[in-house]
Amino acid sequence: MKVWIPHEAGRTLLGELPPDVTVEVLADASRRPSEVAGVRFWVPPFLAGGDATALLRELPDLSVVQLLSAGADAWVGRVPEGVTLCDARGVHDPSTAEWVVTAILSQLRAFPALARAQARREWAYDEVAPTDELTGKRVLIVGAGSIGTAVRDRLAPFDVSFTLVARTARPGQGVHGVDELPGLLPEADVVVLLVPLTEQTRGLVDERFLAAMRDGALLVNAARGPVARTEALVAELRTGRISAALDVTDPEPLPADHALWTMPNVLLTPHVAGSVRGFLPRAYRLVGEQVRRFVAGEPLVNVVVDGY
Ligand code: OXD
Asked: Is 139 helix (H, G, I), strand (E, B) or coil?
C-alpha cells in the first residue's frame, strides 16, 4: 500500500514500517509522486484545507486521512464515506502551551510596547512602568482538551488560579460547562480560547461574551479565528477596555489594512503557535505509529471521523 506524506524529512522520522508499505512525498497537490491508485493513507500538508481537500475525491483506494494539525475543522464534513479522519492531538500540546504562556507574559509585562520603543531607540520606562504581572491572576481556559491541560500545567508555577471550561461540565474533574461562561467571564483576568472550531463554537466570542469580560482582562486566542466574531472583537478592543493576544484571526492571513494590526492593546502572531522545530519529529512519530496500527488492523488513535 502507498502512504503519501508532505515532507521529505518525514521518511526517516516515521520509524520502521512493514515491508509492503511504500512512502511517497506529495508536498504540492499538482505534482503527484505516482498514480493515485493504491494510496490508502494520506497525510496532507500542515494546516492545509480548502483546495487540498479536493484531492480526497481523486484517491479511489483512500482509507485514512491523518492530519498534522490538532484542529480538523477544515476537513470535517469533506471526507468521503468510508474514509477515517484522524487529527494530531498531542503533537501540538507543548508548542501551543508555550505560545500561550509567552503571549500572556508578553502582554502583561508590556513586551510589545517595549519592542516598539526599542525599535525607536527609546528608554520607555515612564511609558510602561509599572507593568501588570501574572502572579495572582485568575485564568479561565475555554477548552479543556490536551492543550488546555498543558497550558494549565505550565502556568501553575506562576501562582495563578484556574477555571477550565468544556462543552459539557465534568464536575468530578472541576471542569465547568460552556453554558456557565456568563457567570465565569466577569471573574477572569485572562481568558484563553483553545476550543476546536465547530458549529457550536463558531462565533462563541460575540458582543455578549466580550462585554462580560472584566475591565483590563486579556483575551488569548490560540484556537481558530472564527471562534471570535471579528467585528465585535475589534469594537471591544477599540474601547481599550480589554486587550488581546491572537495567533489566529478571521480572515487569515489578516489583510494589511485590517484594524487589528495597529491596535496598541493587541499582540498578533501569524498562526505560529504550533510551528516549532520539534513539530516534525513529534508529528511523524504519530504518523508512523498510525501506519503501523493500520497495517496491523489495530484501532487508530485520534479518530475524528470513523470510516468503518
Ligand atoms: C493546529 C494549529 O490545529 O496549529 O494544530 O492550529
From this structure: strand
**Ligand 1 centroid to residue 69 C-alpha, Å:** 5
The CA distance from 228 to 245, in Å, is 12
Spatial separation of the C-alpha atoms in residues 48 and 39, rounded to whole Å: 18
Q: Is residue 256 scored above 80 in pLDDT?
A: yes
186-224: pLDDT as tens digits: 999 999 999 999 999 999 999 999 999 999 999 999 999
Taking the C-alpha atoms of residue 80 and residue 62, their distance in angstroms, rounded to an integer, is 9
Same structural domain, 182 and 264 = yes
Is 17:9 a contact under the CB 8 Å cutoff? no
Residues with catalytic annotation? 224, 252, 271
pLDDT score, position 51: 86
Report the number of distinct structural domains present in the chain: 2
Is 142 in the same domain as 260? Answer: yes
Whether residue 224 sits in one domain with residue 113 = yes
Say yes or no: CB of residue 70 within 6 Å of ligand 1: yes
Q: What is the pTM of this model?
A: 0.96
How many other CB atoms are there within 10 angstroms of residue 24's CB atom? 14
To 5 degrees, how large is the angle CA 170–CA 192–CA 260? 150
Q: Specify the pLDDT at position 225.
A: 98
Residues 171 and 238 placed together within one structural domain of the fold: yes
**Ligand 1 centroid distance, CA of 71 (Å):** 5
**C-beta atoms surrounding 82 within 10 Å:** 9
Atom of ligand 1 nearest to the CA of 224: 6
- Residues 105, 54, single domain; the answer is no
**Whether residue 166 is found in the same domain as residue 192:** yes
- Looking at the fold, whether 117 and 230 belong to one and the same domain comes out as yes
Domain containing 213 equals 93-268
Per-residue cell: 191: 481568558
Q: In this structure, are 64 and 132 located in the same domain?
A: no
